Every structure is written in C-alpha cells, then in structure tokens.
Predict the structure.
Amino acid sequence: MPKIWSDTLADHRDSVREAILDATAELVAEHGLTAVSMSAIAQAGGIGRATLYKYFPDVASILTAWHDRQVVEHMAELMQAAARAQDADRLEAVLRAYAHRNRRDREHHHGADIAASLHASPGVHQAHQHLEHFVSELIAQAAARGRARSDVPPAELAVYCVNALNGAGSLPSKAAVERLVAVTLAGLRP
C-alpha cells in the first residue's frame, strides 16, 4: 500500500487510522483474531511499526477500535433499513436487517473469547442501549397503529426482540434467519 497523503493533517491521521482498521479487518478475515500481530497490521496497512504505535499501543486497542467501527456501521445499516421502509413495515425491516447482520457478523468472527471481550467494551454497551431504544420506539409506533401488542411496555418488547435475534448468528441459513424473524414478529402481534 502506498503512503497516505491528504490535504490536512487531520485528514491524513483519519486516513492512516482507517487504513490500520481496514488492514486489521482483512487480517482477521483471512487468519482469525488470534493470529493478528502489530507487525502484520503494519505490513498490511503499508505503514511502519513506529507509526502504528503512534496510533495504537497494542493489538487489543486496534481490535476494539475496529469492533467499535463495526458497531457504528451496523447501527447505520439499521437506520437505513428503517428509512427505506414504509411506516407500517419499519419495525419488520429493522428486525430483519438486524438478524441478517448478526448472521453475517458471526460468520466472520474468529475466536469466541476475543469476540466476547470486544462486546464488553463501553462503546458496544452504549450502542446496545441505543439499539434497544430505537427498536422500542418502532414498537411503540406500531402499537399506536394497532400492529403491535400494547399489553407489554415497548422497552421490554425491544429487549425480547434484540435478544431473540442475537440467536441468528448461530443459524445455518438465511431461511432459518427468516423463520426466527417471523417467530419474533409473531410475539409482537396484538
């Protein structure tokens, strides 16, 4: 990879940081989380190890930043799914997108222990709360239209949905994910 040049120092730093995260993602996809080293990341990113250490002190901090970026992308994907859908279908579109993303993400995780530690970061906890709030609002809107149950608070139903659809990561096929989404939606009906 050639040296990264940008118009401003801030743009340059952002470009180097993104190159580091992209190189890490490629290495994880190719070799798994446990096989990633600072030397390999520097080489794959086309930067020197000294430069890499200016941005991140160790592999764990890079993996955390990479995972946090994945979480932000995941939330953006869910927001886009909601924006593309009709009002009546927003909840279903978001739940379907969440389930399928979970399945895709789990196919690419290598090393359950490291993945579990990445999920324990404060950024992931905050994103999880944001996700539950987002789903809760969609459920409340659906309940107001008579399309979702109102005998259980939307926040509790959101927890139900998120936890149920987290299981999509262990399902063997897209069809199985679709069945899980259907069962989850059935639990929301009035």
